[in-house]
TrEMBL record:
Stretches assigned to the AB hydrolase-1 domain: 26-278
PANTHER family membership: AB HYDROLASE-1 DOMAIN-CONTAINING PROTEIN (PTHR45763:SF46), HYDROLASE, ALPHA/BETA FOLD FAMILY PROTEIN, EXPRESSED-RELATED (PTHR45763)
GO terms for MF: hydrolase activity
Name listed for the protein in its UniProt record: Alpha/beta hydrolase
Originating organism: Segetibacter aerophilus
Domain of life, source organism: Bacteria
Regions annotated as coiled coil: none
Keyword tags: Hydrolase
């Protein structure tokens, strides 16, 4: 992984990390929430050498921090479309005329927004268990299990959530919440009982997301209740969507919305996989899929 910082036209910084061979075919990566450009590195803790994998398939992964997260400056007027514009500036700087997008979890709306806004540049979208519907959509927020407490706090009591997140980052998370509290399915909870994996996950997601404090992460969490800036039936590119049937963080509603509304949706339903387990277990298959795209 190699960290870089790009200066946007309005003088804000945009942080990003490079994974894989520099001469490889570029793939833009949008991380989950709260998370950061360091997210792909957590695969190493599960025995997946992400650099070797990307080299094998000749792909260059460009993972971008969103505003106020990691190395990127906060944008008080940030939205899904404004981040799409930020990334378009970065692509022009990198002289990338066409690319594919890969994302996990909370990166879903950002990936779909840039596809909708820049169809000549974005050739395909690959979503791993990502949000596709605003949380204000009937039934979506209610179905979110334990995840709804984080996002609900971001919407209703953001200052309290910022305080709590800063405290957790300062003290350091040493082990995952008990399963009865987190509500994670067995397949995900088991993965996090590995101390090295949990430490890496915490460092690359929450800790790096709050490098500048939690303002950016909490602001972003509130965005998911707003209009995403696109309609699913307007996405003209192929959209590959991976989802596990045990995932209770991003529920089936998001997968079914893509399946039934995106004109070129390709669904990859995986029985008994969870939110984290599908990322770990199917990452190589996903990279193979991207490498095979024309």
């Amino acid at each position: 992984m190699k960290d870089e910082v790009f200066e946007l036209p309005d003088k804000r910084t945009l942080g990003y990390a490079l994974y894989g061979p520099l001469e490889g075919r570029p793939v833009i990566y949008f991380h989950g929430t709260p998370s950061s450009r360091s997210e792909p590195s957590l695969l190493n803790a599960f025995g997946i050498n992400v650099e070797a994998l990307l080299t094998r398939y000749h792909l260059l992964l460009i993972a971008v921090d969103r505003p106020g997260i990691g190395l990127s400056a906060f944008n008080p007027n940030g939205s899904f479309n404004s981040f799409a514009d930020d990334v378009a500036h970065l692509l022009r700087f990198l002289k990338i005329e066409k690319t594919t997008v890969l994302c996990w979890s909370g990166g879903g709306p950002f990936a779909l927004a840039i596809a909708n806004r820049y169809p000549p540049i974005i050739q395909a979208v690959n979503i791993i268990a990502g949000f596709s519907l605003p949380f204000s959509t009937p039934g979506v927020f209610k179905s979110m299990h334990a995840n709804k407490y984080y996002f609900g706090a971001a919407r209703r009591i953001p200052s309290v959530l910022r305080f709590f997140m800063n405290l957790v980052v300062r003290k350091g998370a040493k082990k995952p919440f008990p399963q009865w509290l987190s509500g994670l399915p067995d397949v995900d909870h088991t993965l996090l009982t590995n101390p090295r994996a949990f430490k890496t996950l915490s460092a690359s997601t929450l800790k790096e997301a709050c490098r500048q404090g939690s303002k950016g992460a909490v602001y972003e969490a509130g965005l998911y209740f707003q209009d995403y800036g696109y309609k699913l039936n307007e996405i003209i590119q192929p959209v590959h969507f991976w989802w596990g049937t045990s995932d209770n963080a991003v529920t089936r509603l998001h997968a079914e919305a893509v399946e039934h509304q995106v004109p070129k949706a390709v669904m990859h339903y995986q029985k008994d996989e969870g939110h984290l387990s599908i990322y770990v277990s199917y990452f190589e298959e996903i990279i193979q899929t991207i490498a095979a795209l024309e």
